[in-house]
Amino acid sequence: MKKIIVLFIGLLVFACNSEHKLDKEKYLNEGKEIAQSTAKTLSGHVKKAIKEKGPIEAINFCRLSAYPLTDSLSKLYDVKISRVALKNRNPENKAIGMDLEIIKRYEELIFKGEKVKPEIKKDKDKIVFYAPIRLQQACLICHGKPQSEIPDTLFKHIQTLYPDDLAVNFKEGDLRGVWKLEFENKE
Q1: CA atoms in the 13 A half-sphere facing the CB of 128
Q2: Domain of residue 36, residue span
Q3: How many domains does the chain have?
Q4: Residues near 159 by Cβ (< 8 Å), separated by ≥ 6?
Q5: What pTM was estimated for this model as a whole?
Q6: Given strand 175-184, what is the order of strands in its sheet?
Q7: Is the C-alpha dihedral spanning 125, 126, 127, 131 positive or negative?
Q8: How confident is the model over 107-116, as pLDDT tens digits?
Q9: Which residues share a beta bridge with 120?
Q10: What are phi and psi of 9, to 5 degrees?
């Protein structure tokens, strides 16, 4: 009888752990898909603005339209989508709490030459997906070195819109921040 009870408890624990891993994998896959789709949508608009009207228009797009576009994608996917960073341009994107811990750990891994991967964190009322945002070459026109990569007129425009801007002096491949997707915890 004891063996049956122990076996039953072991199977129950195994089943719960297997279900937990499946859910985690589901959220990872869904999070990756949503983050990639959102990044593609936002970068598509930024590239279009640069091509049609120049980098100042791209900054204006980011300031005026990126949040409404992200909010509409949040509604579409039924998840809260945001970007957070240590070196933020918009103060609303400042990393705090768990976001800060994730970014600092990602930076340590990058410094050590290790790969950073998306991950899931559980909170009592939500499941949070994090994925690194690595800076690409095209981003340097707004996030690179002032005067050498960011033209003076553009840099002055950025400073006018964002007087406390920290999102400059990046190099290609640097950690720009993270995607943060908050799913309602239905478990």
Answers
A1: 16
A2: 2-184
A3: 1
A4: 165
A5: 0.84
A6: 80-84, 175-184, 126-134, 119-122
A7: negative
A8: 999 999 999 9
A9: 129
A10: -65, -40
